[in-house]
Structures are given as C-alpha cells and as structure tokens.
Amino acid sequence: VQLQAYGGGFVEPGGSLRLSCTSSENIDTFFAMYWYRQIPGKQRELVASMYRGGGTSYADSVNGRFYAFGDYGDNPKKMVFLQMNKLQPDDTAVYYCKADSWWGQGTVVTVSS
Known about the structure:
This protein is mostly beta strands. The chain has strands spanning about 5, 10, 15-25, 30-40, 45-50, 55-60, 65-70, 80-85, 95-100, 100-105, 105-110.
C-alpha cells in the first residue's frame, strides 16, 4: 500500500488549507483512514479518523475547524482529504495520512504571520 499526502504549505492564521492523500488501493479496502500530525520533537498526534462504515472523529484541538472526508462514493475510491479552517500557529506540523497500519509520506503545514 502506498499513500502520499500533499497540499501543505504556508498560510496565515485564520486561513484554510485542504490536504489530500492518494492511496494506491481503494480506500474502502481499509477499516479506517486517519490523519496524523507531528511537531518536531513531539509525538505524532491523531487528528482525524474516518471509518469505512461511516463516521468520523476528531481530536479536541481541531474539532469544529477540521473536516475529514473521502471519495467513498466515487469510482475509483482512492483519495481522502482534510479540510483545515481557522488555522492557528499551533497547527503547524507535518501531516500524515494512514490507512489501517500503513503510513504515507507527510506534507508540511506552516501557519504563521
């Protein structure tokens, strides 16, 4: 399984970014898809989870600002997204997507004025 996250960049506080993650396999193959982030020197943090049967969950720190979704209803079903709104400097991190136990490469998000 190959996963690649992209769409990171530089944004000012209060701005928005949408991250994308492409999977080499259909995403409904997996029990769940996840978005994580990691600040240098800190542990990787679970940001959002999307479950094959439906439903999502979010870390308290992003709930109401971040929205995770995937193209489960499309064909092919190989992409998931993380819409990030009202970004804050504390959201600065490397963001990763994960499918069950497979990790993808990260994409860097920097929030700064």
